TrEMBL record:
Obligatory cofactor(s): heme
Assigned GO CC terms: membrane
Subcellular location: Membrane
Keywords (A to Z) from UniProt: Heme, Iron, Membrane, Metal-binding, Monooxygenase, Oxidoreductase, Transmembrane, Transmembrane helix
Protein name per the record: Cytochrome P450
GO MF term (any one): iron ion binding
Family per record: Belongs to the cytochrome P450 family.
Pfam families according to UniProt: p450
Membrane topology: Single-pass membrane protein
Keyword Thylakoid: no
Length: 131
């Protein structure tokens, strides 16, 4: 019984160490390609750093720290960017709208309910343009 308990404790501890190393390695890989931004917690990301009201004050402080162009945030696992000034926002959202104007895929609404033909939930691509 003692041997079984010792083995299970070791295996749980070893699994946790391996999982921690994998999560640490994955978090470092993602940040290489992303704009600068504040660090966050492993699962919640920057969720607790953003107040529910007057969030723009926090974003303004981050602009001073990380630059006034684009700031990267991870909000509960969702990659998010904050555009720091009008020029950057106009460039990305107006001049390059064709690149960034798409919707996240909603499998249930887009495929199952409409058979893949739903206009409301369709991706902004060639099929959408033909509809």
């Amino acid at each position: 019984m003692a041997l079984y308990l010792e083995l299970s404790t070791r295996s749980v501890l070893g699994s946790l160490i391996v999982l921690g190393i994998i999560l640490f390695a994955r978090s470092n890989k993602r940040k290489e390609k992303l704009p600068p931004g504040p660090g966050g917690l492993p699962i919640l990301g920057n969720l607790l750093q953003i107040p529910k009201d007057r969030a723009w004050l926090v974003f303004s402080e981050w602009r001073k720290t990380y630059g006034d162009r684009v700031i990267y945030l991870n909000i509960a696992g969702k990659n998010t960017v904050v555009l720091g000034n009008y020029k950057v926002a106009a460039d990305l959202l107006d001049r390059r709208a064709g690149i960034y104007s798409d919707r996240a895929r909603n499998i249930v609404a887009g495929e199952l309910l409409t058979g893949g033909l739903g206009f409301t939930f369709a991706q902004h691509n060639d099929v959408w343009k033909r509809m």
